[in-house]
Amino acid sequence: MAQDNPPVVSYKHSLTARALRLAVLRIGLVSLGAGAFSYYVNSTSIEREVTGQLLLSTEQTLQRESLPFREIKDLQQNFLKEFQQTLASPGMQTKLVNDFQQIFYRHEDGSYTQRPQLFEGQPLADSRSFAGMSATYAPDTPPNDDIRARFALSYLLSHKYGSSTKGRLFNFYGVVPEKGFPIYQDADIAKVFTYSGPEALKLETYEFYARGFGTPGNETLFTRMYWDFSNNAWMTTIATPDVADASGKHHILACVDVLLDQLMARTAKPAMHGAYSTLFIADGDGTLIYHDSVMDQVKSSAGSASIRSLNMKEYFPLLDVVPTLAPGQAKIVQTQDDIVALGLIPDTPWVLAVHYPRKLMIPAIFDNLVIVVVLGLLTLLVEIFILRSILQKQVAEPLFRLLLATRLLGAGKERLRPQQLPTQSPDEIGELARAFANMAERVQDAHEDLELKVQDRTAELEKANRQLYELSTTDGLTGIANRRYFDEALVNEWRRGLRAETVLSLMLIDVDYFKKYNDHYGHQAGDDCLRSVAQTLKAYAQRAGDLVARYGGEEFVLITTTASTEKALEHAQAACQAMAKLALPHAMSPMGVVTVSVGLSVMALTKEGTADELLRQADLALYRAKEQGRNQVVLADTQQ
After folding, report:
1. What are the φ and ψ backbone dihedral angles of 547, each rounded to 5 degrees?
2. E-only strand ranges, 392-442
3. 213: alpha, beta or left, given left = phi > 0 and alpha = psi -120 to 50?
4. Residue 485: CB partners within 8 Å, gap ≥ 6?
5. Which of the residue ranges 134-138, 223-227, 273-277, 567-571 would you say has the lowest mean pLDDT?
6. 328: left (phi > 0), else alpha (psi -120 to 50), else beta?
7. Element spanning 493, H or E
8. What is the distance between the alpha carbons of residues 454 and 464, in angstroms, rounded to a whole number?
9. Who's near 159: CB < 8 A, 6+ residues apart?
10. Which CATH topology does 483-635 take?
11. Nearest residue to 182 via CA among 208, 160, 155, 202
12. Alpha-carbon radius of gyration of the chain
């Protein structure tokens, strides 16, 4: 069968022809008049837009780049606080001195390092292991019990904080002023640093040591940037000393080394295309951290090169603005060649300057000029002359009907009717309307079919997502909530408790002598034991908002809201006793049955407290429960 050829439509008085005859008479004069005015408007608006975008993107960069340094300062403050609290605990010095004897050994020159194989992960006699931890202590001052306790505690806490931030921080170390240097990192310093020979370690010559213990305050300090040849990278050290005692002496210095390569790489590529960055210290001279064209001079000067020493006069105006900067807020500095957004990175002494060359705006000005003139004048031409004369009836009204039909088609609420379209119009719009009607019918049919398929797929996807979420938040062994779900629930309960002004209790529960149970009865029996513990604890999490979860290994957690500390303690003791009453045989336990130790933390929720503090208090209480003989509940000392 022969196909019908589409008809060729010809109009004696074409709408396009009539419109062009009127438009050609005016467009030339309008374009000439609009050119000069558009150039001025475009140049001003583009510069204003560039300035706004530059200011916004720079402030976003300042806040983003401050996050790791804020984390470091918070970690160091937490380290110092825990160091002080632990050291002040009754009987703790004796325990720490004993830890010192287990962890370190004395060399012939009077110095100390960690015992062999500790760095590689070999456990102590009490099963503790400190993989990645090394240390060295100078022979200058023979250690007394106070030094032994502080050095051992610094070693333990450096491992705790360093291992918890592995992958995010390069290292973590707490230095004692008697030149004790325990550190968590990939390299064993006990094999590198010695106290004899030409390469002898002189810790007092290090900037972080001299400044950290030499300042009377306890503010966080950043060392000057330096090139580390062992890592082939730029670095700086962030150090925070503790509060000095009455004699002005510090007892501990928390430190982290920071690799600057990633910071340099990020700041080298500002968000705005064509911009470039300068990073320098707010020290008056503008000691450089990063500037692409002078990094060889910075490296050869060991990080001391500055804007002033290199006589970079075009940047001198930036130094004048630095004293007026507020952390995280950028200011615009106009120079002859550049528009510069200048800001101080919060929690650092560093200034970020993002330069946008003015020459980059010239193409945009001319591009916008062409676009604005052409579109603006054509729009003006159509609206004022054509629409008011010829096209008002022949175009505006039919097009409005087409537009309304388009919206109805897009909304998809009902099918289009033929009378809704200008299909009877004897010109191009009528042809368009007829073609649109045919297309609309096909689209609506396809849309209805697609909606049915989408509904089916959506239902299947929601079902799969629910199943996936249940799998990702359930512990596979015990069938209760896992650590991930607990972390989310703790934050949610904390926020809900803040709004309701309730009291939240958290039990950190550990199965006593579980390793011995596993070794004696086998891992299958150990798994059965953990399942029994989980099911027993579920009976004590029956109210809305309560949650029992496996925290890890043989540890469980139980979150409840409570009316008072006394009620929470009764609840915890009941759970502890229920486990003992279950009477699961445990031949390797002094109790003869499987028991649990419970660390209980109860906190009235306030904006000043944190969920992490609640968990930390429970952990300390659990430690005391174990230390006091297990099979008991210990309430955390600090209540907030």
Report:
1. -150, 130
2. none
3. alpha
4. 473, 474, 547, 549
5. 223-227
6. left
7. helix 483-500
8. 15
9. 130, 132, 133, 184
10. Alpha-Beta Plaits (3.30.70)
11. 155
12. 36
Instruction: Supply the mean pLDDT for the chain.
Output: 84
Q: What is the pLDDT of residues 530-539, one digit of tens each?
A: 999 999 999 8
Question: Given 3-state DSSP classes, what are the helix, strand and coil percentages for the chain, each rounded to the nearest 5?
Answer: 50, 20, 30
CA dihedral (521, 526, 530, 535) positive or negative: negative
Q: Which two tokens stand for residue 205?
A: 């010559």
Of 253, 303, 109, nearest to 193 by C-alpha is 109
Q: Which amino acid is at 576?
A: C
Known catalytic membership, residue 554: yes
What average pLDDT does range 280-293 have in this prediction?
90
CB 353 within 8 A of CB 277: yes
CB 76 within 8 A of CB 256: yes
- Cβ(494)–Cβ(605) below 8 Å: yes
- C-beta separation of 190 from 106 below 8 A: no
Question: CA-to-CA distance for 105 and 273, rounded, in angstroms?
Answer: 58
Asked if residues 76 and 220 have their Cβ atoms less than 8 Å apart, the reply is yes
Element (DSSP H or E) covering residue 577: helix 565-581
**What is the rounded distance in angstroms from the CA atom of residue 498 to the CA atom of residue 613?**
15
Q: What does the block give as tokens for 243?
A: 């509060």
Catalytic residue among 65, 178, 493, 554: 554
Place of tokens 């676009």: 371
Domain boundaries, the chain: 70-215, 406-472, 483-635
The 3-state DSSP class for residue 502 equals: coil
Q: Measure the CA–CA gap between 18 and 427, rounded to whole angstroms.
A: 12
Backbone angles phi, psi at 330, to 5 degrees: -100, 150
The set of residues, in sequence order, having a beta carbon less than 8 Å from that of 523 and lying 6+ positions away, is none
Which of 87, 178, 92, 199 shows the shortest CA–CA distance to 135? Answer: 178
User: What whole-number distance in Å separates Cα of residue 155 and Cα of residue 4?
Assistant: 90
The mean pLDDT of 531-548, rounded to a whole number, is: 89
**pLDDT for 5:** 47
d(CA 494, CA 504): 8
CA distance 273 to 313: 25
Strand partners, 183: 134, 173
